[in-house]
Amino acid sequence: MIAETGEVPSFPEVQPFADNWSYLKAELAWLDRVLMRSLSKQRQTNQEIDRVAKSAADRATSHWWKGFIAIDPSKGGSLAPKHPPAMHPLGRYGDRLAVSHEKNIRLAIPTLCNHLALGHFERDLLVLCLAPEISRRYEKLYTFLNNDETNCKQPTVDLALRLFCRSDAEWRNARSTLTVNSPLIKRKIIQLYFPTNSTARSLLSQAMLLSEKAVTYLLSEDLPIETVIPKPRSRK
């Protein structure tokens, strides 16, 4: 102890990410935890519905008779946590990202987020959409978690909002990042489309897909950001 020895305890030095791939593996480990929690919850929900539902109408209205939807916070709707955990300005792995930047280690997603001034939800979207390009097991997880009749293998807007939003306010703010004028959509980094055989036309029902250029850039170690965000043309 300090009082007995006079020595100041040492703390382990924050280590940078070795490279872009090491960073992506850390992000996928985080995503796996998020998906497993959602998977466990949805399995439990489906089991409860299967046990009680007697008809297709029962299944279609299960959100109401199970009491899942309650928009008014005074009647059970979601509120932002009173004391949300402190978050590093750079998000999770913030200290490691800062050290990596100091050592000129290029990490594609943080670089893109910084270049476009993207928020935490948009960064999470990039991880969510990039995952199937690294392992096809995410396609199976997304098919189950989308929980609809389309069997869509890509994450939908609805799934992203369910996974990453903890309150009604976060949900509204996050949804606005997927409008036509938001950076990821306007620059065609993420493309929205209606899954095959889907008759729905809401934003929530649309699936999200990274462009080929974005995938190549996010997986690379040394491609310049101009490969996905061209410099504006100079006017003569």
Low-confidence spans: 64-80
N/C terminus separation? 69 Å
Please state roughly what percent of the residues sit in beta strands, choosing from under 5%, 5-15%, 15-25%, 25-35%, 35-45% or over 45%. Answer: under 5%
The top-level CATH class is Mainly Alpha
What class do helices, strands and sheet pairing give?
Answer: mainly alpha
Shape: globular
Counted by DSSP, the helix tally is: 12
Number of domains: 1
Mean pLDDT: 82
Q: So, CATH architecture?
A: Orthogonal Bundle
CATH T-level topology: Arc Repressor Mutant, subunit A
TL;DR?
The chain is mainly α and 236 residues long. The chain is built from twelve helices and two strands; from the N terminus they run αααααααααααββα.
